[in-house]
Amino acid sequence: MIALEELLKSISLSVQSAQNAMQEAEINNFLHFFENELQADGMDNVSVPAPVSPKILPFCINQGNPQLKVPLVSLTGHRSLSLDTVRVVLNVTAKADSEGVQVEVASVDNNEQQSHQIALEFKQQEASEGVSRMLDAANQFM
């Protein structure tokens, strides 16, 4: 058995880790559009070789016309994928005592003990005002 608080904390951390993995994948996918790609070993360890420039696709509409130099990054969509809502449903057996509520995850067809269902829903929230201001300042810097 595990404390209910520990179970909820573990599930919450798992959802946050999944969101972070998706954000890292998004950054790494974006970086593939540049020469001398930034080398990202997770978000905490990014090394930047100089100079970094966009990959160029030479494009010629008609023979005899000059070639257009089109940045490859401008030809693709850059929509991000995020976990907007995550719903987790657990069947648990519970025991309450003076130390709190202890739970054990039960199988769906558990007939031995009476199980209870816990439904958790994680929703993505807007960034706090302080974080939003820092992001706005960083975007203006660029």
Rg estimate, integer Å: 24 Å
Strand order of the largest sheet: 1-9-8-10
- SSE class: alpha+beta
Number of separate helices: 2
Distance between the termini: 51 Å
Could you give a short account of the major beta sheet?
A: 4 strands, antiparallel
Mean pLDDT rating: 83
Order of helices and strands: EHEEEEEEEEEH
Poorly predicted regions are none
Helical proportion, percent range: 25-40%
- Strand tally: 10
Characterize the structure shown.
By secondary structure, the chain is an alpha+beta fold. The protein has a domain at 2-33 and 76-141. It has helices spanning 4-31, 129-141; strands spanning 2-3, 34-35, 39-40, 46-47, 53-54, 56-59, 68-71, 85-97, 100-105, 116-123. A hairpin with an 8-residue loop joins strand 6 and strand 7. It starts with a strand and ends with a helix. 2% of the residues are buried. The mean pLDDT is 83.
